[in-house]
Amino acid sequence: MINKRFFKTKDEVEVTFELDANQVESAAIVAEFHDWQPVPMKKVAKSKTFKYKTRLPKNEQFQFRYLINDTEWVNDGSADQYIANSFGAENCVITTAEAN
């Protein structure tokens, strides 16, 4: 799941990425906005999810995927779109433009 929070006075969007943690030991977000380097997501025990919050520039698009247990690639079902990658799979795309 992806939640976006838009600010009236800032040119950035607060984005929270959330991943179901059933039978997951570790999760990382791997994204363009981190030069494709894995960044660990925080495990939230009470909701059984992993979360990662960041701020991104408005009116941009970024590709990302989740890396589960250091071995399995997973996409987010609530991504704005998907785009083929060079590994024969698809990357998620998040758009930080505010919908009218």
Question: Overview of this structure, please?
Answer:
- This is 1,4-alpha-glucan branching protein.
- It comes from Vibrio hippocampi.
- InterPro entries: Ig-like_fold (IPR013783), Ig_E-set (IPR014756).
- The chain has strands at 2-6, 12-20, 27-31, 39-40, 42-44, 49-57, 61-68, 72-74, 81-84, 90-95.
- It has a single domain, classed as Immunoglobulin-like (Sandwich), CATH 2.60.40.10.
- The strands form two sheets. Strands 3, 4, 7, 8, 9 and 10 form a six-stranded antiparallel beta sheet that branches. A four-stranded antiparallel beta sheet has the order 1-2-6-5, with no helix packed on it.
- It has no helices and ten strands.
- It is 0% helix and 54% strand.
- β7 (61-68) and β8 (72-74) form a beta hairpin.
- The protein is mainly β and 100 residues long.
In short:
With 100 residues, this protein is mainly β. The protein has strands at 2-6, 12-20, 27-31, 39-40, 42-44, 49-57, 61-68, 72-74, 81-84, 90-95.
Write the layout of secondary structure elements.
Elements lengths: L1 E5 L5 E9 L6 E5 L7 E2 L1 E3 L4 E9 L3 E8 L3 E3 L6 E4 L5 E6 L5
Antiparallel strand pairs: 1-2, 2-6, 3-4, 3-7, 5-6, 7-8, 7-10, 9-10
InterPro entries: Ig-like_fold, Ig_E-set
Protein name: 1,4-alpha-glucan branching protein
Give me the CATH architecture, please.
Sandwich
Number of helices: 0
Shape, principal axes of CA atoms = globular
Order of helices and strands: EEEEEEEEEE
The count of strands amounts to: 10
- According to CATH, what is the class? Mainly Beta
User: Going by CATH, what is the homologous superfamily?
Assistant: Immunoglobulins
Radius of gyration: 13 Å
The percent of residues in helical segments reads under 10%
N-to-C span: 21 Å
Q: Quaternary arrangement of the chains shown?
A: single chain
Largest sheet: 6 strands, antiparallel
Q: Poorly predicted ranges (pLDDT <50, ≥5 residues)?
A: none
Approximate strand percentage: over 45%
Mean pLDDT across all residues, rounded? 94
In the residues, how many domains can be counted?
A: 1
